[in-house]
Amino acid sequence: MTATAHKQDLATTNRQFLERLFATLSHEGWGQGFLHALHDDVVFNAMGVSPIAGRYEGKQTYITQVLERLHARIARRPQLSPIMIMTEADMACARFQSREGVGINGADFSMDYCWVFRIRDEKISEIWGYYDTGKMIALFDDSYAPLEGRIKPPQKH
């Protein structure tokens, strides 16, 4: 097999992997299906300036320093849907959106994302995540007050 053919096969395999992953995320959200798709030594780069921006090395670090913090701030989890996936050898890019997410403070957590992936053996080894940093900041802002017409958090009983 030529190097070009190998890269094309790898791109096709990685595209199919991400299509399956996003089908799972669309139904289950950021649950075990997502975590299973990550290498134990995954590196997650949350780009921009926000309470979660930074470089996180290792799946457990990502879980405790990003996912658990996000889950603690979300009253209604968003529904995810992919828009576009592109692959080139071991690299991929996915544009996707989340809708109907609401923070515990009433912040609208619906947004568009663009993530760049490095994929190794049909698992994600690195992510560069681009997202709406303003919405991420609002999610973590305890003084945030929703403006009229914004989504309101569920009422506690």
TrEMBL record:
**Record-linked InterPro entries:** NTF2-like_dom_sf, SnoaL-like
Gene3D superfamilies found in the cross-reference section = 3.10.450.50
Highest taxon of source: Bacteria
A Pfam family: SnoaL_2
Q: What residues does the SnoaL-like domain cover? A: 19-126
* Protein name from the UniProt record: SnoaL-like domain-containing protein
Q: What is the organism lineage in this UniProt record?
A: Bacteria, Pseudomonadati, Pseudomonadota, Alphaproteobacteria, Rhodospirillales
